[in-house]
Write a structure and sequence with these properties.
single chain; 259 residues; Spore Coat Polysaccharide Biosynthesis Protein SpsA, Chain A; 11-stranded mixed sheet; globular; Nucleotide-diphossugar_trans; hexosyltransferase activity
C-alpha cells in the first residue's frame, strides 16, 4: 500500500445491545489498523451506549457520541461525518460485520486504481449470525445511470475518498439515505464506482427491516425520486417503474446462493 491513510468508520447506534460488541470486534480485528470508529448513539433505551463506551475506554480509536432524542440513522451518520478526520469514509451499521481484511483489500484496490468510490460483494446472515446462503455480488463498474435505477451499493461495503470528493452528508429523508449518498458520490467522482468481487462484509437481516419487507419498496423509493431528487409526480412514477424493472429483471443476476 502506497501510504497509510486514516479511515473514518461511521456507525449509527440504536438499541443494538445484542450486536454492537460483535460489530466493534469486527472492526478491531481488521488487518489494516489505521482507522477511527465514530459511534453516534441515537437515544438508545437499552444498554447499547454503555457497551459502546466500555469499548471506547479500552481502545482510543473508538469515539462515542450520544444525542438526546431519536433522530434516525441519517442524522447520526451526518453527525459522525462532520466529526470524521479520515481521508476515507466507510460505513458499518451497529448490527453488521466486516471480514477482517475488508479495509486492507479495499484501500489497496482504491489506491491501485485511482478510485474515489468503491464497494464489495457481501453475504446475508440472520440475527444469530448464521448464513442465509445469499450472496450479493458487486458489479465491476457502477455508473450514475445504473445507480439511479437501483441502489447497487451495500452501505456496509462502500467507501469513498474524502480527499477526492469532500464529505458527503445524507439528505434529510427517513429512509433510503444510503442510496442518496452513493448516488451523490458517483456524481461527484465523475466516473463509475468500482466493485470488488470478494465477500468482505456480512449484512444482518432482522425481523421487520425494510430488506425483509419488500412491500415498503414502493413507498420509500417513490419518495426517493419525488422528495430527494425533486422530480414531479409523473417523472417520479416513471423512474419508479424503471426501478422495478431493474429490481425484478436485472438485479437478480447479481444475487447468488451461497453454500
Amino acid at each position: 500500500m502506497k501510504n497509510k491513510p486514516l479511515v473514518s468508520v461511521i456507525t449509527p447506534l440504536y438499541n443494538a445491545e445484542g450486536f454492537i460488541a460483535h460489530t466493534i470486534a469486527s472492526i478491531q480485528k481488521q488487518t489494516y489498523t489505521q482507522w477511527e470508529l465514530i459511534l453516534v448513539d441515537d437515544a438508545s433505551t437499552d444498554t447499547s451506549l454503555k457497551i459502546a463506551k466500555s469499548h471506547a475506554k479500552e481502545d482510543p480509536r473508538i469515539k462515542v457520541f450520544s444525542i438526546e432524542r431519536n433522530e434516525g440513522a441519517a442524522y447520526c451518520r451526518n453527525y459522525a461525518t462532520r466529526l470524521a478526520t479520515g481521508e476515507y469514509i466507510a460505513f458499518l451499521d451497529a448490527d453488521d460485520l466486516w471480514h477482517s481484511q475488508k479495509l486492507e483489500i479495499q484501500l489497496q484496490f482504491m489506491q491501485q486504481n485511482d478510485c474515489a468510490v468503491s464497494f464489495t460483494s457481501y453475504l446475508h446472515i440472520d440475527e444469530l449470525g448464521n448464513s442465509l446462503h445469499k450472496r450479493i455480488v458487486a458489479l465491476p463498474k457502477l455508473s450514475y445511470a445504473k445507480q439511479h435505477r437501483n441502489n447497487y451499493i451495500g452501505n456496509l461495503t462502500g467507501m469513498y475518498s474524502v480527499e477526492k470528493l469532500g464529505k458527503i452528508e445524507a439528505p434529510k429523508i427517513r429512509k433510503r439515505q444510503d442510496w442518496a449518498v452513493w448516488l451523490e458520490a458517483i456524481d461527484r467522482s465523475g466516473k463509475p464506482a468500482l466493485g470488488i468481487d470478494q465477500d468482505l462484509a456480512y449484512y444482518r437481516v432482522r425481523k421487520g427491516s425494510i430488506s425483509a419487507n419488500k412491500s415498503k419498496l414502493i413507498k420509500y423509493n417513490y419518495r426517493f425520486y419525488r422528495t430527494y431528487l425533486g422530480y414531479n409526480p409523473l417523472k417520479a412514477f416513471y423512474n419508479l417503474c424503471l426501478f422495478f424493472v431493474e429490481y425484478f429483471f436485472v438485479r437478480p443476476k447479481y444475487i447468488q446462493k451461497k453454500n
